[in-house]
Amino acid sequence: MRRPTKQNTRQETRTHVNTESEKTDLKPQTSVKNVLASVKLTIFLMSLTALTVLIGAWCPQESANGKEKVVEQFGAETAKLLTQFGITDIYHSPWFLSLIAMLTVNMIACSFMRVFPRVKLLNKPLPFIGGREIGKLPVNTSVNITKGEKSAFTAIALKLASKGFKVSTNEERLLAEYGKYGRLAATVTHIGLLTLLVGVTITSWTGFSGFQPVLLNSHLDFHESEHSKLWIGKLPDWTVRVDETRREDHPTGEAKQWFSKLTVIDKNGKEVKTQEISVNNPLSYDGVDIYQSSWGLDHLILNFNGNERRLDLRPMGKLYAAFLPLDQDTMMLFSVRADGKPIKVFAKRPDWEGPRMLTELSKDKPAKLGPVTISLIKTMPVTGLQYKCDPGLPITYIAFGFIIVGVLMAAIPHRHVWVSFENNVLYFGGRSVKDKVGFERLIKAFETQLTKDFGEPKPEISLETQPNTDAETQQSSSSQSSDSDAQAQSSSDADTKKTSSPSKQNKKELAASAPGSGNTENAQGDS
Amino acid sequence: MSEMQMALTNTAGITSVMSFWVFAASNGFKQRKDLMVKIGSGAMVLAFVSLTAAIIIRGIDAQRFPLANLYESLLWFAWATMGSYLVLAKAYGVRQLGWLASLTALLMFLYGSWLPQSQHDIQPLVPALVSYWRWIHVPPLIVSYALFFLGGLAGFIQLYMAGRIQSLITAIVTVCLALLAVVLGTFTTVDTAWLQILFAGASLVGSVISFKLLQRVDKKIGDAKLAEVYDDVSYRCIAIGMPALTFGIITGGLWANHAWGTYWSWDPKESMALVTWLSYAAYIHLRVHRECSAERLALVSIVGLLLTLMTYLGFNSLGLGGLHSYGKFK
């Protein structure tokens, strides 16, 4: 009889105390431990974090868009102000990081002091209770059994079982539970969130990522990679050589796919792995993934009458172009569409309307411009390689799994039903923290069915438990008849009386017992 | 857009208008009320069925999963709103929610029909969207948005039933101003900075005033029993919307890791989804804590509705940009 008795005494006191003393009742002492593990703090921190992220979503972030974007959107003055307050890099600001840190501490404290201890309660058997105690449950009713005697008791047991309840009986008392595992929702979700923290921490302490444009036949090393300030990882001692890189086009000229043939070379200079990568098809070696993320032509090497000269290429729409000023007014332009395609040579003067094409040249076809012979040595492609090492990823994925399962479980309502058969009266009632209305309907449906089959309702039981002091609910029951919604809700009320309707006496109980039951769990969990 | 699809979409639109008026008008009658509610529900079922067919036919016409731009997502949103309402109505018999649900669907149809023709036409997919992740990641999010909307709407009715009329009116004005900002942002060239101020300012001021006005109770209006029902409905919507949102965010992370090489990049849309998630997580903790009155929770669900609106539609129309701009057309 431990739990319900405890709970019921709480209910009794709850109904009579005002909200102020209720709060003090909930928090007997305010130690640091209790503050850290308080749900109030959670809600406060969550709201602040939400607000901060909201600002971060609104203001373009430097890390993603660059400083220019901020200036462009807000003007230099405002941008400076925003930068000063850390809003343009809000996810790395001390404010945000300390919020996350506090939320983490709060979550760990809550998990271990409130959430996890409840798992122990899961298999704790609840007592079978009698008619008097049942009358104090948030939802309860009773039926006078005039025919069939004990078969009514069997009927309700079967009904509960058919509704998915796990039923256990003890002589003429019954206890049924539904959605037991729904109670684990918070635990599973919190385990998931803590696991997520572990995964993210591992990644931020040992992982790294970066981007490096690499020329053909050059090497990717990891020296310019980014990682967090608190870092205990190490960068690879191997490098990656680009052996080949090319672009494949759609017929319309847009890039279809980029390819790079990469070779991993270990610290002794030995070739260990060769693979061709493309967008969405990375190379993985030693926990590092290397992605193809962009592609371009970097420069031209031309030979002017025996003098080699390097000209940097710039992307111009679908083309790449290099510029070579000849004198103050004249400019030579070299444009190339892709590696291996002929190069078009233009000249541009301010008095000409547009650049004029002079000639075309390719590797085996040098061009002669007056006294100068130009030949192409090579066009140099560059491949943009994105790399990352994310050692926490498997843990993060496991965390994702836990979180999804946890929040799904939260949708399962957890319900308890008690039944007792005493002196030809079948008392039954129970509680459901979530989906209260559905539960009330279930109980009412039982009542109607049992009354029809086995006897008549006996309304006195729950009426006499408490005097009705709730003015609001009194008024509500008087206004009920004028609203058809209410009629729909209580269509069965007419013949079964309003004993189980929480809008009457039990409403206060319902409101009070809800915190009561939770608090009981908390209190037991804390101890 | 094939004629069949057009006809079905129009049927859905027209029947949702019908259902709205019948539901709304049913409050003015005493005797024929039940009949009218039945007609309203019937119209809603018809709208739901024809919209389902319209979406399926659009998918067959397009030879792809029909959820790729703003117009298509609006159809889905209307579909999810009506579907969720029908389920709720069956479970709870919550009729007052009916006209609000059909009003929401109706507004989405209107909003969708005002979009330029390019949105209505079936167009090839942007390369970034060619992935099986699209039909795993997006539908749960749309469904969660619809459920959060219904949760907020149930919050409105809860406030009414609890007699918090002044607070309710403030909340309605707030949501209307936020909607106005979204509509102006979508269809006009008003500077988005002003619209952001309108949206954020209205939400902030409106919410604060609503919370303050909760103390003023009009005891002549409402019904405590029904207030409790709608409180429960609101919680139920959010309790089911939350897993859907979480699932959507996480599958988005998996897709991003596959496509962009990182599962979280603080993209504005990601951030907004996180804001929504955090707010509803706070809501659930408020419930667990059980120190918050039902009316306050109703207002929190309305604030959640505003954030959902921001995440879903405000994001593009108020110019937050980022990697998720597929719904943009300007």
Radius of gyration of chain A: 37 Å
Helix percentage range of chain A: 40-55%
How are the strands ordered across the major sheet of chain A?
2-3-19-20-1-21
Beta-strand proportion of chain B: under 5%
Summarize the structure in words:
The complex is a heterodimer of chains A (527) and B (330). By secondary structure, chain A is of the alpha+beta class. Chain A is built from 18 helices and 21 strands. In chain A, the strands form 4 sheets. Chain A has a 6-stranded antiparallel β-sheet with strand order 2-3-19-20-1-21, covered by helices on one side. In chain A, a hairpin with a 2-residue loop joins strand 2 and strand 3. In chain A, helix 7 runs antiparallel to helix 11 and helix 10 runs antiparallel to helix 13. The N terminus and C terminus of chain A are likely disordered. Chain B is an all-alpha fold and 330 residues long. Chain B has 11 helices and no strands. Classes of the chains: A alpha+beta (527), B mainly alpha (330). Chains A and B meet through helix 4, strand 10, helix 12, helix 13 and helix 15 of A and helix 2, helix 9 and helix 10 of B.
List the helices and strands and how they pair.
The complex is a heterodimer of chains A (527) and B (330).
Chain A: H1 2-16, H2 19-26, H3 32-36, H4 39-58, H5 62-65, H6 67-84, H7 94-115, H8 118-122, H9 131-134, E1 139-145, H10 151-162, E2 166-170, E3 173-178, H11 185-206, E4 208-215, E5 219-220, E6 239-249, E7 255-265, E8 271-278, E9 283-285, E10 288-304, E11 307-312, E12 314-316, E13 319-325, E14 331-336, E15 343-348, E16 356-361, E17 367-369, E18 372-389, H12 393-409, E19 415-422, E20 425-432, H13 436-454, E21 455-457, H14 460-463, H15 471-479, H16 484-489, H17 493-496, H18 506-526
Antiparallel strand pairs in A: 1-20, 1-21, 2-3, 3-19, 4-18, 5-6, 6-7, 7-8, 9-10, 10-11, 10-18, 12-13, 13-14, 14-15, 15-16, 17-18, 19-20
Helix pairs in contact in A: 1-18, 4-7, 7-11, 10-13, 11-12
Chain B: H1 3-26, H2 33-62, H3 70-92, H4 96-114, H5 117-120, H6 134-161, H7 165-187, H8 192-213, H9 224-259, H10 268-289, H11 294-317
Helix pairs in contact in B: 1-2, 1-4, 2-3, 3-4, 3-6, 4-6, 6-9, 6-11, 7-8, 7-11, 8-11, 9-10, 9-11, 10-11
